[in-house]
TrEMBL record:
Lineage: Bacteria, Bacillati, Bacillota, Bacilli, Bacillales
SUPFAM superfamilies reported in the protein's UniProt record: SMI1/KNR4-like, TPR-like
TPR repeats: 69-102
Domain called Knr4/Smi1-like: residue spans: 162-302
A Pfam family: TPR_8
InterPro entries: Knr4/Smi1-like_dom, Knr4/Smi1-like_sf, TPR-like_helical_dom_sf, TPR_rpt
Coiled coil regions in record: 41-68
UniProt keyword terms in alphabetical order: Coiled coil, TPR repeat
Metal-binding as UniProt keyword: no
Organism: Paenibacillus typhae
Name of the protein in its database record: Tetratricopeptide repeat-containing protein
Length: 309
């Protein structure tokens, strides 16, 4: 290993040139990378928030790092931001044993313990809730095969990656709202897209609203990678912030034009963990809120074709 390279890596670190570090170390053949180079690479990846890659690199030198408190700290840091809090606690405890009273280690150890306890409590509550609801009406079947309009040009902007429990949990944590069970079940079949039926009749609300239906252009998927997914570049939080929509819930559908309005899950009656109502927020009418349905299942099943609206 070149001492000149290590000096350059340290200089780049001080200058926050983390991509330079990654590129330089990866240019060294894998069999020639020693513990020092891999440590520099892992640190740079952590600074770039590429936590999975950082953990993979750090674990490749696990044997050499066994007695290094800094290695255990970086492993714990990776696990913490990957939301694997139990593993983070274990790593930070080892780092603390090897280098007692390090302030950064103690801070993240305390944070990890709190997060792990909170996650365990949430899992226990979910299990208790599942047991409590045993014997209730099962979630009605949803025919996703005939619901979505296949082959539309805009489809790729809305269909997110297949759902995992971890993705659902992280999206809910970012949104600070628990997503409805029917919506999740629906998205497990196809995670967002353009529906065949895009009109929702207003019924008794028509006279008050001044129109007999609202129209949607899409249903947002649960994810981050697609532009219009719930936590994507133009996701719920971004839309609420940009257009100053009320912050009582989650934007799940858009009107055909950005200056018209959105369909939102309204958590005000039930709280952030309850079953939200569905409302339309009319941007063109001073963000007027119109009640649509008692829950997302009623709204989805109430969509009709253009001809029937």
């Amino acid at each position: 290993m070149s001492e000149q390279l290590v000096e350059q890596l340290e200089l780049w670190h001080e200058e926050d040139e983390f991509e330079e570090i990654v590129d330089a170390v990866l240019e060294v053949p894998g069999e020639e990378r020693d513990y020092v180079l891999v440590s520099h690479l892992g640190r740079a990846l952590l600074n770039l928030e590429r936590y999975e890659e950082a953990l993979e690199q750090l674990m490749s030198v696990e044997e050499e790092g066994e007695e290094d408190p800094l290695w255990h700290y970086r492993v714990g840091f990776s696990y913490y931001y990957l939301k694997q809090f139990d593993k983070a606690v274990s790593a930070f405890e080892t780092a603390d044993r090897l280098d007692p009273e390090d302030e950064d280690t103690l801070e993240f150890l305390a944070l990890s313990r709190r997060k792990a306890a909170k996650k365990a409590a949430k899992a226990a509550a979910a299990e208790a809730s599942a047991k409590k609801t045993t014997g209730l009406r099962p979630l009605p079947k949803f025919d996703g095969a005939n619901f979505w309009a296949d082959g539309t040009e805009e489809q790729d902007d809305y269909v997110s990656e297949p759902l995992t429990d971890g993705l659902i949990e992280s999206v809910e944590e970012q949104l600070v709202f628990k997503l409805p069970a029917f919506y999740i079940a629906m998205m497990k079949q196809q995670n967002g897209g353009i529906p065949r039926n895009t009109k929702y009749p207003l019924g008794n609300q028509a006279a008050e609203a001044g129109k007999d239906h609202i129209e949607i252009s899409c249903i947002r998927g649960i994810g981050r990678t697609k532009k219009y997914s719930l936590c994507g570049e133009q996701g719920s939080l971004a839309v609420i912030d940009k257009w100053n929509y009320p912050e009582f819930g989650v934007v799940i559908c858009d009107a055909p034009s950005a200056d018209q309005g959105v369909v939102m899950l309204d958590y005000r009656p039930a709280g952030n963990d309850g079953e939200p109502e569905v409302v339309y927020v009319d941007l063109a009418n001073n963000r007027k809120v119109t009640y649509l349905a008692k829950n997302v299942e009623t709204f989805i099943r109430g969509l009709v074709s253009v001809e029937l609206a």
